[in-house]
Design goal:
By secondary structure, the protein is of the alpha/beta class. It is 34% helix and 22% strand. Helix 4 packs across helix 10. The longest helix is centred in the middle third of the chain and has 21 residues.
Length: 417
């Protein structure tokens, strides 16, 4: 009788049990980077295991590799309009492996019952690998040797087109682009230091993006995530390219809208970049710590936006409505520059001489972005219909356009950048 009862309860509970499936990286004992075929098999296995996860193919690469998106939702992404829509994507650069590995570790966690509460208020899409062609040969660029993270404005590549078509379909309120930085340059080594943070984070810097969203990101989100990372055993700091200070200034990354973060942020999205520290070999070295650091930062971000889901949803909706209604400034900056505000930066670094971590204090820091040239927002843009480059660009971006009827008395203005 006891055996029969035990068997009955096991059969009853079986549909509710979700087993933790090791990622390919874990199966190798963190000795081998996950290949594209292994990633494909793994995400399909996760999909079979979980009712909360569904697998989507958002496009294909030049070498005909499908790009996978993992949808985490209790009703289907976007179907419950009260939920916050979140998009994380990794490995635009093929030689930045830990973002992909960290996102697979995250996906493994998210199908477990203890994380199901997140999806009461969030719909999430993960793209572990935007650039599988580059990843397979561990090169930065895609199969046509194009840097995808400089392609989000002209969108000539199928990978960036697929990403933006996905964004346009759901209009995510929160996005994060996951990368790796390399601190091992010759110029930094000659200076006696190198940057040494496991995980760095940045928000949008383009001043055409809603100041409300940028302030919220910098004051309410980044400090909390950086602190949570430290509590989890990962050193963290703001993402600050540039330096060493005696040669060039440090700054809060680019303000151009041709990358993953700013191109989505310019649509008044709460958009972030996460940059883990790459290995010296730009491949396998220290991959366990790198991948777990990336996963920790992503999970911390998810938990924070889950807690603030209602606030963020309302804020993004309000800022997008203001942008579309023309209630914003009415002027757009088309040329910007990084400026100093006198802040003395205390940058965590590794000292080669001391063979330990230390703090480098410098005033060669330009955290402020200022506009050099602005133009009034036009009603529309007029382009020559025989300009194939512009017409193809409009098709790639999905921007609505049509033939302009000939009218008298219409004013046109031209300017050069």
């Amino acid at each position: 009788m006891q055996k029969n009862l035990l068997y009955f309860w096991m059969m009853f509970l079986l549909p509710f049990l979700v087993f933790s499936q090791e990622t390919p990286l874990e199966k190798s004992g963190f000795t081998r980077i996950t290949s594209y075929d292994e990633l494909t098999g793994y995400v399909k296995t996760l999909d079979e295991q979980s009712d909360i996860l569904s697998l989507d193919i958002i496009g294909s690469t030049l070498q005909n590799r499908p790009v996978y998106a993992l949808h985490f939702s209790k009703k289907g992404v976007g179907k419950d309009r009260s939920k916050l829509k979140v998009l994380f994507f990794a490995q635009q650069h093929g030689n930045e492996q830990s973002g992909k590995e960290g996102m697979l570790l995250l996906a493994k966690k998210l199908i477990l019952p203890e994380f199901s509460h997140l999806f009461n208020h969030i719909d999430l899409v993960l793209i572990p690998q935007v650039n599988p062609d580059g990843s397979e040969v561990n090169q930065r660029r895609n199969g046509r040797h194009i840097d995808l993270n400089r392609n989000h404005l002209i969108m000539t590549e199928p990978e960036t087109q697929a990403l933006h078509m996905l964004f346009d379909r759901y209009l995510f309120e929160v996005t994060m682009d996951v990368h790796e930085y390399s601190p091992y340059s010759e110029s930094w080594e000659k200076s006696g230091y190198r940057k040494n943070s496991d995980v760095t984070l940045g928000a949008c810097t383009n001043i055409n993006i809603s100041p409300t969203l940028r302030t919220f990101a910098n004051e309410q989100v980044l400090p909390r995530i950086l602190e949570k990372l430290k509590q989890s055993g990962f050193s963290s700091f703001l993402y600050l390219p540039g330096g060493p200070p005696e040669i060039s200034y440090l700054r809060q990354s680019t303000f151009d809208i041709n990358d993953g973060r700013q191109s989505l942020g310019i649509q008044n999205t709460l958009s972030f970049i996460q940059e883990g520290m790459n290995g010296k070999d730009m491949f396998l070295e220290n991959i366990e710590h790198r991948a777990k650091g990336q996963m920790s930062g992503m999970l911390d971000m998810l938990e924070l936006v889950y807690e603030q889901a209602t606030v963020i949803k309302k804020m993004v909706r309000r800022e997008r409505k203001s942008m579309l209604s023309g209630l914003s400034s009415g002027a757009t900056s088309i040329q910007m520059i990084h400026r100093s505000d006198g802040t003395m930066l205390q940058l965590p670094v590794y000292s080669y001489d001391l063979a330990k971590d230390t703090i480098l204090v410098t005033d060669n820091f330009r955290p402020v972005v200022e506009s050099l040239k602005e133009v009034d927002d036009p009603v529309a843009y007029l382009i020559p219909q025989d300009d194939s480059n512009l017409v193809n660009w409009l098709k790639n971006t999905g921007i609505a356009y049509g033939r302009f009827p000939k009218k008298k008395g219409v004013k046109f203005e031209t300017y050069y950048i």
